[in-house]
C-alpha cells in the first residue's frame, strides 16, 4: 500500500514536471503552466478511473496528489534554468512517468477484477493519456504517434508484469521490474533511435 | 441479445477498419496504427458508457470487442492493397460503423431508462465520437464538422427508430431499418454531395 | 434549489450562445452549429459529473437543459445580425457562462463531500472545459491558454466562495457574489488587458 502510494506519487511528479517543462517551452503564463502541469499529471489516471467507474476519481479523494502536482510545479518553475542544461530532461521525466503510470494503471485494473489483456491496455491508457492531453492542448501531434517506441514500451512492460507474476514473483518486485522495463525500453529507444516499421 | 452482439461487433469492426485505413494513410508505424484502430473502434461506445455510468466500460468486460478490433487491424494491414482499389472504402466503413453505433447507443440509452430525445442524442454521440477522436488524434478537422450530412444522418436514423417503434414494429426490425436509414442517407449524401445550408 | 436551477440554466444558455457564435464565425452548416452549441453548453458539466461519478450525467436526466440549449441555438441563429453589432458579445457570454459554471461545479463538489480545494478545481474544470472543447473542435488553441486572465478568474471566484462561507454568508448570497467576481474579473481583464506574467 505504501509502495503503491509512493509509485503513484513518483509517476504524478514525473508527469507534472514534463507537463510544466512543455508549457514553459511554449511560453504560457504562470497560470497556463499550472493548468497544463495538472492536466498532464492527472490526465491518465483520471481517464483510467472514469473508465473503471472508480469515481470520484483518485486525485479528488487524495489531497496528496494535488500537493505533489503543486510542489512539482513550483520546483520546475524555480529550477527551470538548471533543468534546461539537460536537453533530454523533458523526455526522461516523461519516460519515468510512463513507467509508473503503466504499472499503477494495470494494478487498478486487477483490483477491479479485469482480465490481464484489459489490464495491460488500461496501463497503457493510464501511461499515455496524460501526455496525449499535454500535446493536444499545446496543439502538437501527440508524442505517442510520432515514429518512436512509446506506447509499445508501456505494453511490453505491462505484459511482462503478468509473466513475472506467473513465475510467482511477489507483486512489489514484479511492479518494480515492470517499471524498469518500461523506462529502460523507452530511454533506449530514444538513445539508439529504435523504430517500429511503418507499413508502406 | 445475439442480434445486439452481432450489431455491436459489426459496428466495432467497421470503425476499426476506418481507423486503421486513416492511420495507414498518415504513415504511422504498426503500433500507432493499432492504437488508432482501437481508439476509433471503441471511442464512441466508451464515451457513451462513461456518460451513462455503465462502468467498467463495455470493451473492458468483453474480450470479444478486443478480439474484433485486433482481427480488423490485421485484416486491414494485410489487405490494404486491395482495399486501396476502392477509394471510398474508408468512408463506406465509416458510414456502416455510424449506422450500427447509432442504434446500439440508442438502445443502451433505453436500457438505462433515458427519454427518447436523450437516447437519440446518445446514439449520435456513440456514432460520432470514435471518428472525432480518430480525426483529432491525426490532427485533422473532424469529418463531422466538414460541410456534409454526417451527424444529421445519425440523428435522422435515431429519430426514425422511435417512429418505427410507435408503429409497434418489433425492436430488431426497427433497429435494422434504422441502421439502413443512417448508412443509406450518409452514402447518398456523399454520392450526390448533399449539403445542409450554412447560415451567412 | 430553484436558484440552483436558474443559475445552471443561465450558465448553459451563455455557453450555448458563445458556442453557436463561434461556430457561425467558422461558417459551419446549421447542424454543425447545433452540435457545437451543444458541446460547448454541456461539455464542462458533463466532465464534472463523469469525474464525480454523478451518472447518467446531468443533461441526460434533465429535459430542461436540452430545451435551453435548443432555444439558445435558435435565438443565436435568428438574431445573429443584431449580436454582431456587439463585437465582444461572444466573450461576454463566455464570461457569464464561466461564472455560473464555476459556482455550480463547486456546489456539486460540496454535495459529493469533496474538500474545498478540490471543489475549487472542479468549479474551474466545469467552467473551462466547455470552452476548451469548443476551441479544440474548431481547431483553435483553447482561449484558456492564450495569455489572459481566464481560468484564474474562475479559481479566484471559487476560492472567495469559501471565504464568504467562512463569514457565515448564506449559500445563495455567497454563490451570487462569487459569480459576480468571476464575471467581473474576466471582463475587467479583457477591458484593461490584464496579463499574468510569463516566466522567461
The count of β-strands of chain A is: 0
Helix content of chain A: over 70%
In terms of quaternary structure, the protein is homotrimer
Number of folding domains of chain A?
Answer: 1
Low-pLDDT residue intervals, each spanning 5 or more residues of chain A: none
Number of helices of chain A: 7
The largest chain-to-chain contact, stated as pair and per-chain residue counts, equals: A-C, 28 and 29 residues
User: What overall form of chain A do the CA principal axes indicate?
Assistant: globular
What Rg of chain A, in angstroms, do the CA atoms define?
A: 16 Å
Indicate the mean pLDDT of chain A. 85
Class derived from helix and strand content of chain A: mainly alpha
What sequence of helices (H) and strands (E) makes up the elements of chain A?
HHHHHHH
Q: Tell me the fraction of residues in β-strands of chain A, as a range.
A: under 5%
How far apart the termini of chain A lie comes to 47 Å
Which sheet architecture does the biggest sheet of chain A show? none
Question: Can you offer a commentary on this structure?
Answer:
- The structure is a homotrimer of 200-residue chains.
- The first copy, chain A, has helices at residues 2-25, 30-52, 63-83, 89-111, 116-137, 151-166, 171-191.
- In chain A, 56% of the residues are buried.
- In chain A, helix 6 packs antiparallel against helix 7 (171-191).
- With 200 residues, chain A is mostly helical.
- The first copy, chain A, has one domain (2-191).
- Chains in contact: A-B, A-C, B-C.
- Chains A and C meet through helix 2 and helix 3 of A and helix 2, helix 5 and helix 6 of C.
Amino acid at each position: 500500500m505504501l509502495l503503491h502510494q509512493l509509485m503513484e506519487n513518483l509517476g504524478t511528479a514525473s508527469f507534472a514536471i514534463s507537463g510544466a517543462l512543455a508549457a514553459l517551452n511554449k511560453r504560457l503564463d504562470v497560470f497556463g503552466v499550472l493548468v497544463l502541469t495538472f492536466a498532464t499529471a492527472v490526465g491518465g489516471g483520471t481517464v483510467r478511473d472514469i473508465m473503471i467507474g472508480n469515481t470520484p476519481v483518485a486525485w479528488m479523494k487524495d489531497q496528496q496528489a494535488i500537493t505533489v502536482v503543486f510542489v512539482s510545479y513550483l520546483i520546475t518553475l524555480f529550477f527551470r534554468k538548471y533543468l534546461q542544461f539537460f536537453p533530454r530532461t523533458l523526455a526522461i521525466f516523461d519516460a519515468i512517468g510512463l513507467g509508473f503510470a503503466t504499472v499503477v494503471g494495470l494494478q487498478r485494473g486487477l483490483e477491479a477484477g479485469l482480465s490481464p489483456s484489459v489490464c495491460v491496455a488500461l496501463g497503457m491508457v493510464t501511461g499515455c493519456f496524460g501526455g496525449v492531453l499535454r500535446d493536444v492542448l499545446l496543439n502538437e501531434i501527440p508524442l505517442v504517434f510520432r515514429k518512436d517506441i512509446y506506447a509499445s514500451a508501456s505494453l511490453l512492460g505491462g505484459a511482462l508484469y503478468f509473466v513475472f507474476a506467473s513465475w510467482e514473483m511477489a507483486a512489489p518486485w514484479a511492479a518494480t521490474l515492470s517499471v524498469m522495463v518500461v523506462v529502460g525500453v523507452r530511454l533506449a529507444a530514444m538513445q539508439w533511435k529504435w523504430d517500429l516499421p511503418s507499413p508502406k
